[in-house]
Amino acid sequence: NHNMETVPRLYHAVRPQAKYERSLELIKWFKSKGLKTKSGIMVGIGEKTEEVLELMKDLVAHGCDILTIGQYLQPTKLHLPVDRFVTPEEFKMYKEEGLKIGFKIVESSPLVRSSYHADEHARAIFKED
To answer: Number of structural domains, the chain?
Structure first.
């Protein structure tokens, strides 16, 4: 598991110590070792739909198997504010698009967090082998 958290344009603001490409390469490295890979992102921080879809394509291209997408909620006043609350329809669209482009599992709804249904996902994805 390595969470990307957000799209490239917002990466520095959300993950100041991390680099987008390095995070993708980390997922690719784990996949090259034969491991199942998972990432998570938050939406509602100012990203555009097209940016999320591009991020999803980047993850699949680097071997990511499972993706979780949840609503960003501002933990403290020191953190970035919520830009918007993503609609259930948009979360559904992300799930459908994610499955189309090659993720094995996509969890996408407002309350999804990185570990959401992790035990079920592990059983399901290892059943394939």
So the answer is: 1
